[in-house]
Specification:
With 123 residues, the protein is mainly β. The protein is built from no helices and eleven strands. The relative contact order is 0.32.
């Protein structure tokens, strides 16, 4: 089992920045990839970004490319999502997720999920 705890959400104005953190614990040796997803009210959950736990290669949704950066600190078992130039449409609950299979796609089939942290961007 892998436990994930997100932090760092909040209320900011458009154009501001936030950094989300996701601390992983438990059987982290089984983690192949970590991802961030978000879900806005009335919408389906969508992929935001992901990073390979070993090697650090990354992938991003088109909507956040150039504004968001995912990174990880293996020593701390923590993944970060640096969000710059935030827009109102970035308002959502953000979830951290862990994937254990190397054969899964970047944006689906995640095995463990955090409880989420709310990001609200005002104009």
């Amino acid at each position: 089992q892998v436990q994930l705890v997100e932090s760092g959400g909040g209320l900011v104005q458009a154009g501001a920045s936030l950094r989300l953190s996701c601390a992983a614990s438990g059987r982290t040796i089984s983690v192949y990839r970590m991802g961030w997803f978000r879900q806005a009210p009335g919408k389906e959950r969508e992929f935001v970004a992901a990073i390979r736990w070993s090697g650090g290669s990354t992938a991003y949704a088109d909507s956040v490319k150039g504004r968001f950066t995912i990174s990880r600190d293996n020593a701390k078992n923590t993944v970060y999502l640096q969000m710059n130039s935030l827009k109102r449409e970035d308002t959502a609950a953000y979830y951290c997720a862990a994937q254990t299979s190397s054969s899964s796609m970047w944006y689906t089939n995640y095995d463990y999920w955090g409880q989420g942290t709310q990001v609200t961007v005002s104009s």
